[in-house]
Specification:
By secondary structure, the chain is mostly helical. It has one domain. It has 6 helices and no strands.
Length: about 140
């Protein structure tokens, strides 16, 4: 199945994916080295395949995420995650699952940079997972 996404749909996917990594880096706190979490998560996203991989790999400029707190970032990212799964599900359910798996790999990869169990990061992971399942 050949799927063509609009520019807005591609923006939603990239905002959701890279925003999820940003939320994880923010939740990781200073002891988890947020820059390493963000780098590891971005590498995981760039390793995606299929339509999702092509969209995430496109050079589109900066992702428009704004806010001065994790709450403001989450207000943008969590709905984008749900919207991304829903729109992919309308086009191709296999790609919707591919997107969920891609975000799951990013979550698992970023967890490697926690020096110890981090309840804040675990909570954020739960919120991201719930947003992915809400579609």
């Amino acid at each position: 199945m050949s799927v063509t996404l609009t520019t807005q749909e591609k923006t939603t996917l990239r905002t959701a994916a890279y925003g999820a990594v940003s939320l994880l880096a923010a939740a990781g706190g200073a002891t988890s080295k947020p820059h390493k979490i963000a780098t590891a998560g971005s590498i995981a996203l760039s390793s995606a395949t299929g339509l999702v991989g092509h969209v995430l790999a496109e050079k589109s400029g900066r992702i428009a995420l704004s806010g001065s707190s994790v709450a403001e970032l989450a207000d943008q990212v969590l709905p984008a995650l749900t919207a991304a799964v829903a729109l992919l599900g309308e086009h191709d359910p296999v790609e919707a699952e591919n997107f969920r798996n891609t975000i799951g790999v990013a979550i698992d990869t970023t967890a490697l940079f926690q020096p110890q169990p981090n309840p804040t990061m675990a909570d954020m992971t739960g919120k991201i997972t719930a947003a992915l399942a809400a579609a």
